[in-house]
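Researcher: Structure for this, please.
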Amino acid sequence: MAKVESIGPDEHCIVTDAVAEAERQTDGEIVTVIARESDDYRETPIYWAVAVMFLALACIAVFPDWFANLLATTTGGWEHVYTPSEYLTLIMLLLAAKFGAVHLIVGWKPLRLALTPPAIKRARVRARAINLFRVSAEKRTRGLTGVLIYLSMAEHRAEIVADSAIAAKVSPDIWGEAMADMIVELRAGRAGEGMAAAVRDVGKVLAEHFPKSDDNPNELPDRLIEL
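Model: Predicted structure, token format:
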């Protein structure tokens, strides 16, 4: 997927216009949100640092001669008989050094994101989408017909969350076409066009199940929200 640094004013207009057009055909209300990331994953460096630390400890336990030779190289090859206390202290210092080094390296944001398991990223994106939906769309429309289309750029993931009236009539897998059309544009580096394509697809589904009535007001903002 092409990297998209930011969403320009023209893309904001494309999405806003797509929402306005879609809502002309339905009582449904579409909220669009693009976020740079859904989480900072600050625990990832800790997990990797602990894993490397325990791997080093396992290597010392399985290959004690290797560790003894390593200690000998630090003293220029001179043999030294370490007391148990000295030996354990050296092991702890080695483990602490490995922990600190790995934590520092994995703390670099691009690497931290790359080393976070996909399942965790999926869960965080979904959780952020649901939280944003609760704040921006859930139970904020007269007919409980709000929909959130959420795109998280860093994780390259999107979510569609619908209010209860929509969920009762529309199976979640129906949104697959909207996701697919969004991904096509995102891979070309056009986040705004991707969001607009998803809006049009969602609008068609809403128009089928919740056609526009004469007295339905515009209850939620049409503009793209960028976080």
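Researcher: Any notable elements?
Model: The chain has nine helices and four strands. The two ends are 20 Å apart (CA to CA).
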